[in-house]
Amino acid sequence: MLRGVLGSQVAVATIVVALRLFTRLRLTRSPGWDDWIMLATFTIAVIGTTMNLVGLNYGIGRHVYYLQQDDAVLATKLYWLSGAFVITALTTGKVSVAFLILRLSITKWHFYLLHAINISLALINLPLIIWTYAQCRPSARLWDPTVPGRCQDPLMQGSFAIFQGCESRQSQITVES
User: Fold this and answer.
1) Nearest to 158 by CA among 124, 122, 128, 126
2) pLDDT averaged over the chain?
3) Residue 146 contacts by C-beta under 8 Å, 6 or more apart in sequence?
4) What φ, ψ does residue 138 adopt, rounded to 5°?
């Protein structure tokens, strides 16, 4: 079922992005930064989704009790690695919408507000991605508990992730207003 949902989302996104680029490149002949950022967002999101689709073959979505150790490690690894692509795609998607609004806007305060939002998204999401993989030494311990090493308290990263989620939602509400 999850394969169908993810596959359908990729199919719809492919059609929407293709139509958008066709319109901007062929019909209006006025592509902008927002279009190229959206294409990058689409590519990044497809990579993350593909990682999750492959991870389904190894046990993403199933209880670890039912998995072989190697499959559980690979599924967890794909899950963690896809997170960077998902966070990046969510961030660049918002940046693309902000650039689209900038193309349509004529007021200075929109210009400053949208650039401030883009900067805050970068300043919050980039450290979250780095922290995700730096929270364990070595990083492989994040997805393989048999690897010797140590990890930070999961509550630290979890708390920052909640903060990032709230900030991301607030930026989305602001851009949509």
Assistant:
1) 128
2) 92
3) 69, 73
4) -75, 165
The answer to whether the beta carbons of residues 172 and 98 sit under 8 Å apart is no
Domain ranges of the chain: 2-176
Over the stretch 4-52, which tens digit does the pLDDT of each residue have?
999 999 999 999 999 999 999 999 999 999 999 999 999 999 999 999 9
